[in-house]
Amino acid sequence: MSAPRHKTVGSSKASDNAKAKQLEASTSTFAHILTTNQGLQIPDNHNSLKAGTRGPSLLEDFILREKITHFDHERIPERAVHARGSGAHGYFKPYMSMVQFTSAGFLQDPDIETPVFVRFSTVAGSKGSADTARDARGFAVKFYTAEGNYDLVGNNMPVFFIQDAIKFPDLIHAVKPEPHHGMPQAASAHDTFWDFASLMPESTHMLMWVMSDRALPRSLRMMEGFGVHAFRFINAQGDAHFVKFHWKPKLGVHGLTWDEAQKIAGKDADFHRRDLWEAIDSGNFPEWELGVQIVDAGKEGELGFDILDPTKLIPEAQVPVQIIGKLVLNRNPENFFAETEQVAFHPGHLVPGIDFSNDPLLQGRLFSYTDTQLSRLGGPNFHELPINRAVCPMHNFQRDGMHRQTIPKGRTAYEPNTLGNGAEFRVDGATQGFQSYRESLESPKVRGRSPSFDDHFSQATLFWNSQSSAEKDHIVAAFRFELSKVESTDIRQRMVDNLAHVDMKLATRVAAPLGINSPDPKAAAGRLGYRAYRITNKVDEDPSLRMASKPGGSIKTRKVAILVADGIEAATIKRIQLDLTEAGAICKLVGPQLGNVVTANARQINVDHTFANMPSIMFDAVLIPGGPQCIAALLGMGEAVHFVLEAYKHCKSICALNEGAQLLGSIGLKPAMSKESVKTPEAGIILADTRKAPEGQISQDFIAAISLHRHWDRANVEAVPA
Ligand code: HDE
User: Fold this and answer.
1) How many H-runs (helices) and E-runs (strands) does the chain carry?
2) Rounded-to-integer distance, Cα 407 and Cα 395, Å
3) Residue 393 dihedral angles phi and psi, to the nearest 5°
4) pLDDT bucket at 2, cuts 50 / 70 / 90
5) Euclidean distance between CA atoms 722 and 716, whole angstroms
6) Tens digit of each residue's pLDDT (9 = 90 or more) over 137-186
7) Nearest-atom index, ligand 1, CA of 226
8) In the structure, what pLDDT confidence band is assigned to residue 31 with cuts at 50, 70 and 90?
9) What is the predicted pLDDT for the residue at 25?
10) pLDDT cut 90: percent of the chain above it
């Protein structure tokens, strides 16, 4: 636990120490004596009390009853959204003082590290759902600052589906399993979601993000984070600037293919959780940089859209992101329940120097989070749970309630008072502490929306225009897949009619295999909720919106499978394996069975995984060794051939050495080597003759290929039978 415990009010040091020692002894993993929760030693933890060894169990067995009762209540309600999550501890450090813009203490001094706890999550699925579902990802950061906890509760996409909080329950009801039969789990590909989405043109921009590869991260460590809403930075003089927050991953931004994501959901539902855990466990600490887009208060009108509208982003091409600090995750939780599960975030946990904007989605969130914690964590004292405690002193007269830990002493639980410590005590109108931005407000009460929120398509078009051609293909394929799961043709039609307002080519491509009419923008324009208003984007294209422009360039923690079978010429892979490992990749030997394989030199080498327990979808790249006997054996194994075909289909880098190239024969790549000792018949495929290749060249080419993540322009992958 990073957040230090607070001394409870009024307890003596000696009794605190005695209690702490007792607690440690009783919870120690190595304690051999089991007791009840009252400290009574349990004589036998294998047998309940019975009337005779073959007789009925006795109700008086309070030891049995206590154990089972506790077990019965082990589960707490899961989060209504973001139920499936993974957390980690770390720290945040600013690169410079932000004093010009904000008085927030944790952003002042580059020498000060602030402890953090971060929880990543999917949104729609239940706690036990698969990590790789197509979905937005939560990216919630709790900063334990000296001025109180600050929570930046964001997502891995910079916009949201709806503009007003009042639509949130409808959105979530639409995407969750349909209420009559409880299906499908963790999937938006069903009628109710698309029924809602197609009737809410304001969702269109976010739909573009969710249908892109952003919704299928390769790793939680390889996705961006966004605060989504505009917030305010306020400096010591009370001057305000609007600010949008960004997290930029050091490893670049990378996605899976949809086929891969679906298969991984079956083979390893914990894919992202495991990846994060293993990276931290092995000392490969994930890092992000914090970026801010700052807009002078009063100048937001020049953006061309409403800064308060959460379906809009500020293009980086318009307002550059200024990098101001870094986040490092360097410690795994010790107990999933106590930390990842019980952590309670809230966008209203602010520190002086940061305030909200009037974004109507953000305003609604401010109520929701405490409200949901009250039932999820069982009462109003969840701030006392170790993971949620502030690290600075806390004092107030909130009292009692379920599960209260603090024991305040004395008579006064009110203010003002003089009885508490003898001196007059009164808090009001202070100029210190948290100060809300002094915004002038005088307006009629309205239940309505500003016309400046009416444009629902321009930024969806900007997003589409900014994608690489492979990313565009993936977006089209995603819409097709999702809508093909929708039974109602009316809904399918309505959706592509809406898409016609984003881009006619996109809509036409999506509609082609869906058994519906060509998209009709006029039909969409005639529907309720449609607004004709359209802004002119100040930029036509923004490279920061495409993943292809964020390669990261490193192969650190990338997983490389080395295929093995008896007869492998181990010398062919030795140097490459060393070079890959040196560059930070993780190499694993994958073969037909666990144990050893025998090399061509009659030596034994250990196999890490089988083709069945670690298929190609668990790896980023494949290395095929040399050795005629080994390759003949692999060619005779369907699983090995499938391994290579699938890696090829998922556009991964493959390096085949000597006769290993024959394994690529079924893809139509001719194994015969020409005079060249290393050739790349297409991007990401390296065929090499280890006897002739210049020292180090194979590794160099292979590492360069892996660092590009995927080779999306690979031709004809649809034809590959994998
Ligand atoms: Fe949340 N959201 N949300 N949300 N949200 C919750 O709070 C809610 C929204 C986000 O790892 C819940 O403690 C409303 C936007 C994250 O524990 C709940 C609205 C963004 C997490 C809730 C939104 C988020 C949550 C469920 C519309 C991106 C997980 C459990 C007004 C900026 C935090 C809980 C964690 C969790 C309500 C919209 C991010 C029900 C009403 C927009 C990352 O209170």
Assistant:
1) 17, 19
2) 12
3) -60, 145
4) very low
5) 13
6) 999 999 999 999 999 999 999 999 999 999 999 999 999 999 999 999 99
7) 32
8) low
9) 52
10) 87
The SS3 of residue 579 is: helix
pLDDT at 552: 87
The DSSP code for 468 is -
Residues 52-88: b if buried by 16+ CB within 10 A, e if exposed: eeeeeeeeeeebbeebeeeeeeeeeeebebbbbbbbb
- Which residues belong to the active site? 82, 155
- 343 CA: nearest ligand 1 atom: 17
Contacts 24+ apart (CB under 8 A), 674-680: 680/705
Q: Which residue in 464, 684, 426 sits closest to 555, CA to CA?
A: 684
Give the whole-angstrom CA distance, residue 615 versus residue 588.
12
CA 81 to ligand 1 centroid distance, Å: 7
Half-sphere CA count of 13, side-chain side, radius 13 A: 0
Nearest CA to ligand 1 atom 43: 138
pLDDT in tens, 89-112: 999 999 999 999 999 999 999 999
Q: What is the pTM of this model?
A: 0.94
Residue 276 and residue 86 in contact, taking contact as beta carbons nearer than 8 Å: yes
pLDDT at 8: 37
Give ligand 1 pocket residues (Cβ under 6 A).
79-82, 85, 119, 121, 138, 140, 153-155, 160, 165, 168, 228, 343-345, 361, 364-365, 368-369, 372-373
The pLDDT of residue 9 is 35
